[in-house]
Structure prediction request, 338 residues.
Amino acid sequence: MFDNSLHIFLAFFGGYAFMSMVLLRNPTLLHRKKNIKFTCRHISHRGGAGENYENTLTAFKRAVAIGTDMLELDCQLTKDNQVVVCHDSNLFRSTGVNKNISELNYRELPLLKPSLPIDFDPGVMFKGSGIEEERRIPLLSEVFKHFPTVPINIDVKSNNDLLVKEVNRLITHYGRENITVWGSFSESITLKCYAQNPNVNLLFSLKQVIRLILLYYTGLLPFFPIKESHLEIFQPSMYLRPAWKINTTRKEGHFMIFWPSVLIQIVDALLMSKTLFQHLKKRGIQTYVWVLNYENEFKQVYDLEVTGIMTDYPTRLKKFLNSHHEYSCAKNVIANTN
Prediction:
């Protein structure tokens, strides 16, 4: 009896493992490949927070002039229901004014400070020209008007139904559904984005990233459908940089900072999987890794066959791609969205 059960189990497990491997390498046998209208190797985080005032028209213009493939930005909603481009819900870090964006009308928003900390380069400050126009917090509509054909990656920062609705209204008004990606770390916000408009490219929430990794390492991923089109993940080993040991008052991804280095390396090995990225690519899902600012990181991650890298230093990444042609083969392919 026991032998028969063991044989049945082994036969089942062997068949499962075989099918999982086949579908991992050939996912289109079961799933339709997503048809994304652009491919981005070079992504400017907040427009390039290490080279210009973050999330400003000046930053976006200069990143596009350099040749970035995509702009990444963050959205908030003002008291008078204007969608603005700003990372923090509270203005103190960026402007010195201890007010929430939701408490102020758009015309009441203060200018950004002349110097700003770079979240993903701890201990480093961006010191700009101080020109007032360069420090103005822009409307999302302005960004769409200035860059009608540039892919834009929108991080919806607040769990606000009206914010999601207004961002979607602007996306559709400017005919950007095919060249916009949106979502959030928050599962709740991301689900609201998808419910509002399933035709816009969608980010994985943090919950769905964890689910993705669990499915991958149990061999179940090839059997499951995926609604998201873009995976954005961080490289855990970037938190091993000496700079992350600097005692600053603010650090993005602070949950990783005090982890033992061995544990960070283990998480890095699990998350930075070339085989996973190849599987997603075959399903038409693009992978972006953030926020990388140094050449050794660029090389490590491009070697994993990710779609693109997000950086605070657009010029630095562009120079790297220009001098390493083996990594710069993928260029934007923008479909006619008219």
About this structure: Residues 96 and 113 are 7 Å apart (CA to CA).
